[in-house]
């Protein structure tokens, strides 16, 4: 089955909002065995949306639209679909009732403009949207399917998981398609590709290699008539990948590095503190996103200047001798914060964000130290400057922390 996504919204065309709905759908469709062969980004413009719909209808079996289901003048998806299918839009009393209940539950008055969101055409079935005011539409006509979904990702994804995907699964009823994602850090995309491609010589199972903010992800997709067979294919290939990439793999599917680090700290009953310079608090912010309410994370300091580092306990003499951007500097930061906050483990992150060379060190050079009572570990990385350095250094610190935590009994 060939599919096309029409992503609708002028704000997307202007670059004010990044089109995450399309990437979400693009990742979901292969799991249903649906081949996404085109994506169209179109503004809130009747003529152009209508033209895009005409083209998509000619080329594709399924058309997914996202956006333009709101109550305002520029929300035109319903009108354009109705006109294209030559059907009349009418207010559905059931949908109106649901809409009124939605507003009543929020204690808000429903604007007369919202009534538009209760309109529907005869060939469409409404798709419930408990997270918003715009129901989706499911249309089957002339052996084609149109699925219209709301733009806000939180609404669209919920509708996809709860309503659209199960309906499509029933419709397609073909092979079982399973996927498994392995998340790695420390190797480039090209290197991962080189190492794993001999294992994936045929198209089944399919292997996708993706560069993500937290490293390189590998996604295995297996298709089979029976679920057990698809599971076996995935397990076999996963085992091979684990063998080859063992020390680089840090997680699977929905795992996050901060989530894993958080679990390990709690499991081992250890506390953590951080001192970072050019990452500007990103490490602390990422850790608090999972450990905010836990006693495992004692806290962190952003010590951008040498003065701040010295005030927080880093030795002046050490900075004079080695510079603050050094193995010794990172270690001193980790130990100082450990002592200050009485934590079991301290992490120090220092480096050169660029564009200038500092202390004779080039942009992209990052030193990370992890210190505890019993051990001290320091690593340095040299990341190519176009990378988002504060993000990659944060990921590197979490990755190193995970490894250290795993080695503690
Ligand atoms: P609403 O009832 O909120 O108006 P809608 O279906 O009309 O819903 P839009 O008005 O097109 O949706 O978009 C609402 C908001 O949802 C946008 O301002 C944007 O923040 C977000 N959004 C829309 N489309 C996308 C997309 N493809 N990717 C990410 N965010 C999106």
Q: What does this protein structure show overall?
A:
- This protein has 409 residues and is α/β, with parallel strands linked by helices.
- The strands form four sheets. It has a six-stranded mixed β-sheet, sandwiched between helices. The chain has a five-stranded mixed β-sheet with strand order 14-13-15-16-17. Strands 10-11-9-12 form a four-stranded antiparallel β-sheet.
- It has 14 helices and 17 strands.
- The mean pLDDT is 93.
- The chain is elongated, with a radius of gyration of 26 Å.
- 36% of the residues are buried.
- Residues 7-9, 11-12, 17, 19-22, 66-70, 75, 132-134, 150-153 line the site of adenosine-5'-triphosphate (ATP).
Mean pLDDT: 93
Percent of residues in helices comes to: 40-55%
Anisotropy-based shape? elongated
Q: Structural class per helix/strand content?
A: alpha/beta
The distinct bound ligands, ions and cofactors come out as: adenosine-5'-triphosphate
Oligomer: single chain
**What is the total tally of β strands?**
17
How much strand content do the residues show? 25-35%
Q: In what order do the strands lie side by side in the largest sheet?
A: 2-1-3-8-7-6
Total number of helices: 14
Report the span from N to C terminus: 51 Å
Radius of gyration: 26 Å
The main pleated sheet reads as: 6 strands, mixed
- Give the uncertain stretches in residue-range form: none
